[in-house]
Amino acid sequence: MKIGILTIGNELMSGRIADTNSSFIAREISLQGWQVEIVMSVGDNFAAIKSRLHDLLTLTDAVICTGGLGPTADDITTTAMARAFDLPLFTDEAVLQGIKDRFAKYHFQWIENNAKQAVFPRGAEVIVNPVGTAPGFALQVRGKLVFVIPGVPSETQRMLPEGVIPILRRHFPQPVGHTLKQTIKTFGLGEGAVDKKLVDVNFEDLGVSVGFYPVFPENHIVLIARSDSREQAKKNLQKAQDEVTARLSDFIFSYGEQTLEEIIAAELTEKKLTLAVAESCTGGLIANRLTDVSGSSVYFERGLVTYSNEAKISMLNVPADIIEKHGAVCEETARLMAEGVRKISETDLGLSSTGIAGPTGGSKEKPVGTVYVALADGNQTVCRHHAFHWDRKRNKLVSSEVALMMLKNYLQDKA
Amino acid sequence: MKIGILTIGNELMSGRIADTNSSFIAREISLQGWQVEIVMSVGDNFAAIKSRLHDLLTLTDAVICTGGLGPTADDITTTAMARAFDLPLFTDEAVLQGIKDRFAKYHFQWIENNAKQAVFPRGAEVIVNPVGTAPGFALQVRGKLVFVIPGVPSETQRMLPEGVIPILRRHFPQPVGHTLKQTIKTFGLGEGAVDKKLVDVNFEDLGVSVGFYPVFPENHIVLIARSDSREQAKKNLQKAQDEVTARLSDFIFSYGEQTLEEIIAAELTEKKLTLAVAESCTGGLIANRLTDVSGSSVYFERGLVTYSNEAKISMLNVPADIIEKHGAVCEETARLMAEGVRKISETDLGLSSTGIAGPTGGSKEKPVGTVYVALADGNQTVCRHHAFHWDRKRNKLVSSEVALMMLKNYLQDKA
Known about the structure:
Two copies of one chain form a homodimer.
Chain A: E1 2-8, H1 10-13, H2 20-31, E2 35-42, H3 46-59, E3 62-66, H4 77-84, E4 89-91, H5 93-105, E5 119-121, E6 125-127, E7 136-141, E8 144-149, H6 153-171, E9 178-187, H7 191-197, E10 208-215, E11 218-227, H8 230-248, E12 252-255, H9 260-271, E13 275-279, H10 285-290, E14 300-305, H11 309-316, H12 320-326, H13 331-345, E15 349-355, E16 370-376, E17 381-387, H14 392-413
Parallel strand pairs in A: 1-2, 1-3, 3-8, 13-14, 13-15
Antiparallel strand pairs in A: 4-5, 6-7, 7-8, 9-11, 9-12, 10-11, 15-16, 16-17
Helix pairs in contact in A: 2-6, 3-4, 9-14
């Protein structure tokens, strides 16, 4: 079944408000196994709403509209629907009483234009609004369905699953097929390189669609399998995943939606290990990412952003002559930072970064983007050198990524 | 002039990615005084792209398309444009060389499918991409204009103002001569509240258009004045700015494009002051934001993410009995953290945060979102309590904002 989305509002045309309803509705509809064919947005304008509705009904089996159901003069969607399909309007007395009761309950002053929200085109099936005053409605026109719900995101997010989807299911009960999804997250290859490695896989023959989503510095692959039977969809998805794994295993760090820091959180928690971090070029970003995970205080003991040499010397006991001889950006300093922070924090692990984020501070020997990351566990310290070529913020981001990736690999290799 | 927007990508149909480009483009176009008539989104599908393009060209004078210009197999926009308008494709050798040079410069391995990004429909005017590999292009068809730029938001945000709008201006020169812009950044009021405070200002009579850009947790206001004379535009812009200032002065922190951390950087550098930070609930985010500014090593000495109580006690000399008695989240701890980090770092200033980012860890007395931030200068220590109600990441973000805001106000109040 093909679905169209029409979001209505002058604020969408002026860009004053970003249309978050479209992506929410598209996601929910896709998860039902239905296909979103097209999304449109128009202003609060009778002619535009009417024309776009007719276009959408030509292209799809059902149209979901949001916005323009409020009490003010520029809320014209209900009247626009009535005009578009040549239907008279009527007031639903029960709905009107419900709105009045709601006003009384919350001690809001009753203003007559709120009665507008109990007016519907003839034949409308009312959709209850559990979190606001304006109800929505469904219409059957030309054997197709048109839904109208408010544009307030919190109301859309309740009324779509609770009101719209059940009515859609009632009208389109036949098994429209099963949809299964698998996200695979990679790091270390550009989008083009990921694509090239997969170019010989015939996803179409497997009944699987593939999407590439760069989320700097990662590249995510999303596989979607559709089939009449759930078993078949599962089989196809697995096969597609195996093909991806065979070609990209060195770069895959997650099957699913987990972030890198969430994977690390699960590993540290399960293995009952604690961690401290000493950062220079990443400037607190590693600690910030680690503490984005709820419950991180269980394993994350502390983080030191030792930006000055003095801080590296006094807090981490990096010998001054090492920094003098080799500079703050070198393998020795990275190692000593990881070992130092582990020691003073009395944690199982110490993770460090030192480098030149840029755009200034580079030299011929150590250009901007030179980064060392190190991990110490008390028995051994591993250190890796990287050379990045991004701007300051992205150099910081990719440096935090290689540090966390080093930690993740260590944890997963550990029995 | 009427403009249509067409965003292209399967990820928009599946709802995997929210379409933020549409609202950005709509805002920028509105600020130019042009009218966005309709926004559409379709998947990476030849037939859909072609049909929607034809629909849009019927309704508007120019169409701005984003997405589907990457190197991968599902990036079909360029070919779809060529097919829609029956134009042959050609490789622009200069653009190809530019892409190859970019790969060489950054030491990326050249992969042949990147050459796709140098292919254009005949007659295309290339639009330079200053922040990525895929250029965009403009086509003239049926006396109308079609623009295609990449869908990566950071690229759209550069290429629209720098590439698309100048070409639009060339084709649709405005009768009025001068355009002046002023960004005003606010913090502390929601978008709706900002709007409400300005509702009685008649920007139209002042010849000024106004746009609202929520950039969590800030709200930015953009004023654009247009007039035949530069003097008049300047006068109108100043008048509009005065009206905004009169209503929002308590919440304005910047007139211009500078970020909060850049304002702080300028103040600290000018006043030759140094800073150290001790963070708990913000988990490194304050340090990360401060070090996003190039040259921050001049004033940022170190940051400590003292996540555990032990770290607060051993590194910052917060007495154990204070934490025992009042907990780690309290005014006393915040003050002692700011004083402690200032002292051990031997800096002029110490800034701290402690709180409960959530979603767990709250109690009846100290619910999730309770945050204390403190600033110590050796003579006095100021501390402020806040109660936020966001999710974990946004609680961290708004906490870093109030800490930095406190620092900024201190620096600007200082003679």
